[in-house]
Design goal:
Length: 373
């Protein structure tokens, strides 16, 4: 293999100008519509989702259709751009069904090979932000052989489905294939649960006599669901990265402004060491998350390994960053009014979403070929 070939195959971990422009647009929107007081007020209300915010993000900026080709009404972008959106959503912990609908559900539908049928029609609705679709599986379901989840019938109860309350359509995997079920139809019940992370609601979905549209038979559906879960796990690392970056930035800011014994508390050596260590972890998390996003965007055969590495590492970094943020803020970090608790709860909930870090480490061990002794 030549050096030139190696250079072409090397992952691109840098952000392009277009990606930075997208980041600026999303960050500006979230700063105006989803700052800490707005998020806290939202989770205290009966409607945690700001529909105007979702409309602006999904349709105004076009974020919902980033993965959808232009011929189907999307933006024709890649997982790299979607990762940038998720970084900003993680930075603001804004309640928005982006990961579940614009990434996982969209990736599943794209993998089915949309023509002119119901798959193409649903993709166009998702890309335009007119509908939200979620996969009717527990949020903790890890990327694996898709055949493992293609079981049962439309008569079922599934607990722990993320964003189901916001969904217009459920993608339901069964032994016969993948069905699209309208949440407003007869025989569909969505019962809200009380989750740890109030910014990403969970629900129990019960289907009893519900009608569904068959999107694909079991074989193609299994491969599509597996691809969707892989993309979800890979881009979840970007959300965890954004969360960790906010925690680090906010902690540094607070320790600069907070004084004790006539000195900023951040000047004490023990705190300097802790924040320096956290900075190193966040930098490494950025590399892992960007590598996963790039592998998904380029269709690299190493994507499962890149995703497993990113999740195994980024979930721990996000939890550690949130814990340090709470602790180094002292008493104020323990209050409901300060947003630190939102980040800790999101980090904890994300750490078991799409598979635990331990499960991903097992995947890494199975994918890496060790040299013979």
């Amino acid at each position: 293999m030549t050096a030139q070939t190696e250079a072409v195959q090397a992952p691109d971990l840098l952000y392009s100008e277009a990606e930075e422009d997208l980041r600026s647009a999303v960050r500006s929107l979230l700063a105006g519509r989803a700052d800490a007081p707005a998020v806290i007020a939202g989770i205290e209300s009966d409607t945690p989702y700001d529909l105007r915010l979702w409309e602006s993000l999904a349709a105004g900026i076009g974020a919902a259709g980033l993965l959808v080709p232009e011929k189907l009404g999307g933006q024709g972008a890649t997982h790299r751009e979607a990762a940038v959106v998720l970084e900003e959503l993680g930075r603001s912990v804004a309640p928005a069904p982006y990961l579940t609908s614009a990434v996982v559900a969209t990736e599943i539908l794209l993998a089915l090979g949309a023509g002119d049928g119901p798959v193409a029609g649903l993709l166009a609705e998702l890309a335009a932000g007119r509908k939200v679709a979620v996969l009717s599986l527990p949020f903790s379901t890890p990327p694996a052989d898709g055949a493992a989840v293609m079981t049962g019938t439309l008569e079922r109860t599934v607990t722990g489905v993320a964003e189901a309350e916001a969904a217009d359509v459920l993608l339901v995997p069964t032994a016969d294939g993948l069905y699209a079920v309208e949440t407003g139809g007869d025989g569909v019940a969505v019962q809200a649960l009380v989750p740890l992370d109030l910014t990403r609601p969970l629900a129990t979905v019960t289907l009893s006599g519900a009608a569904g549209t068959l999107l694909a038979d079991a074989g193609p559906a299994a491969a599509a669901v597996s691809k969707g879960l892989l993309a979800g796990a890979g881009l979840l690392a970007s959300e965890q990265l954004g969360l960790a970056e906010w925690c680090l930035t906010e902690t540094v800011r607070h320790t600069r402004e907070r004084h004790q014994f006539n000195r900023p508390v951040g000047s004490f050596q023990s705190l300097k060491h802790r924040m320096a260590q956290l900075w190193l972890e966040v930098v490494s998390a950025r590399a892992a998350a960007r590598n996963a996003a790039d592998a998904l965007a380029t269709g690299s055969p190493d994507a499962p390994l890149a995703v497993a590495v990113a999740q195994a590492y980024c979930s721990r970094v996000a939890v550690n960053a949130a814990e340090e943020c709470v602790q180094l803020h002292g008493g104020i970090g323990m209050t409901w009014e300060h947003p630190a608790h939102l980040y800790l709860k999101r980090a904890k909930a994300d750490s078991i979403a799409y598979g635990t870090a331990g499960r991903h480490r097992e995947t890494v061990a199975g994918l890496v070929e060790l040299p013979a002794p």
